Amino acid sequence: MKTRGNIELVKKLYGGDNMLRAEWHMLLTALTAKEKEYLRALAATVAEEKFGKGVYIRGLIEISSYCRNNCFYCGLRAANREAQRYRLTKEDILECCEQGSQLGFNTFVLQGGEDATQNDEWLTDVVPAIHAAHPDKAITLSVGERSAEAYRAFRKAGADRYLLRHETRNDEHYSLLHPQTMSASKRRECLKTLKEIGFQTGSGMMIGSPGQTVEHLIDDIQFLEQLQPEMIGIGPFIPAAGTPFTGEPAGSIETTLLLISLLRLRFPDALIPATTALATLHHKGRTQAILAGANVVMPNLSPRSVRSKYSIYDNKATSGCEAAEEIEKLEKELNAIGYRINFARGDYNKKGTEKCIM
Ligand code: 5AD
Ligand code: SF4
Fold first, then answer.
1. Which of 80, 238, 312 to mutate to test the pocket of ligand 2 (most atoms within 8 A of CB)?
2. Considering only CA atoms, which residue is closest to atom 7 of ligand 1?
3. Alpha carbons 350 and 354: distance in angstroms, whole number
4. Is the CB of 113 under 6 A from ligand 1?
5. CA–CA distance, 214 with 211 (Å, rounded to integer)
6. Ligand 1 within 6 A of 312 CB?
7. How do beta strands 340-342 and 59-64 pair?
8. How far is the CA of 52 from the centre of ligand 2 (A)?
């Protein structure tokens, strides 16, 4: 296709039209450097129209490095003997929130492996304690696949948002990344339930995970179109020691940035983080993501002593702009590209919640 054709495709996407698979294919594979720059600039403009030059911050509290699952890509998988395990207590978490509150955070994200000790009852006790201490703050959970009853209990207890990446929409690819004990349909069912319960729901996928093809990415985009998540987290795959994928190459930064821009145009209102995985692969990964249309950063609020232990992949960035207590650094980094931190809660803000059509 001629250059003009690709620009027309970008404009069509910007206009909100449904894209054919072949058109997604072109956008994902055939843009020249100039066309990519056009797309990036347009995505940044759309983000600016929606969110100004403000970037929302979420304080990430990594509550447990124990996990019963064995996702092939993840350093926290149960079978990884090299993983360092810890779990935070309720008191630890409340302390993190207190610190986060003093630093100006208005959203806390509790993320952890599927830890049998931090079970549904435990979480249903911790969430209201945070809510009572910080009634105005948003509470986000990212604690994996749970029952509908548990999700309902979390919501009732005061949780507002839930992050659960679908990882890949393609069932065959899913089974290449996960043991048979896990299923893609179960994951999708959980996401559907979360939406139905009224969580602001985040999903997403890794870019460049082993075996991933362009067709898989199109499946992912079409899945997101059905789910209509309020948040979309994407980051490059990064190999992790002690996992079956330890020798695999990392995902591409360029493709991740391209996806961020495409998703910004397709989901103008979505909350899209500049992920730690991008920042880990390149010192400019975070700012490049903002300039490509991302509008959220999630600095680490976990106790310093455990940060290196939450090792989902190798060399995960935990210092500098990734550290909550160094928030001035992040502000400076954003200022340097013409952005600033927006300390507001940053709820999804489109009139009427998006209807999931899964
Ligand atoms: N590289 C990049 N991202 C990873 N995740 C897990 N392992 C890796 C890895 N090796 C992502 C998954 C998960 C999220 C918490 O972290 O997408 O949903
Ligand atoms: Fe557990 Fe999540 Fe890692 Fe899978 S990706 S092993 S569910 S922590």
1. 312
2. 74
3. 8
4. no
5. 10
6. yes
7. unpaired
8. 34
- Measured between its terminal Cα atoms, the distance across the chain in Å is 33
Q: Is any ligand 1 atom within 6 A of the Cβ of residue 277?
A: yes
Q: Which residues line ligand 2 (CB under 6 A)?
A: 67, 69, 71, 74, 76-77, 113-114, 144, 312
Hey, what amino acid is at 290?
Answer: I
Distance (Å) of CA 181 to CA 68, 102, 167, 271: 11, 42, 15, 31
Whether 322 contacts 97, CB under 8 Å: no
Residue 76: phi, psi to the nearest 5?
A: -90, 0
In this predicted model, what pLDDT tens digit does every residue of 284-322 receive, in sequence order?
999 999 999 999 999 999 999 999 999 999 999 989 999
Q: Which ligand is nearest to the CA of 109?
A: 1
What is the rounded distance in angstroms from the CA atom of residue 38 to the CA atom of residue 24?
16
pTM of the full structure: 0.97
Angle at 273 between CA 267 and CA 279, to 5 degrees: 140
CA 158 to CA 328: how far, in whole Å?
A: 30
Dump the DSSP string for 212-272. --HHHHHHHHHHHHHH--SEEEEEE----TTSTTTTSPPPPHHHHHHHHHHHHHHSTT-B-
Smallest CA separation from ligand 2 atom 3, residue: 74
Rg (C-alpha) for the chain, rounded Å, is 19
**Could you read off the pLDDT of 155-199 as tens digits, one per residue?**
999 999 999 999 999 999 999 999 999 999 999 999 999 999 999
Whether 170 and 189 have beta carbons less than 8 Å apart is answered as: no
Nearest to 111 by CA among 252, 301, 270, 259: 301
208 lines ligand 1 (CB under 6 A): no
209 CA from centroid of ligand 1 (Å): 9
Record the tokens describing residue 160, joined without a space.
């507002």
Centre of ligand 2 to C-alpha 45, Å, is 35
* 8 A C-beta contact, residue 296 and residue 345: no
Instruction: Pick the residue whose CA is nearest to atom 6 on ligand 2.
Output: 77
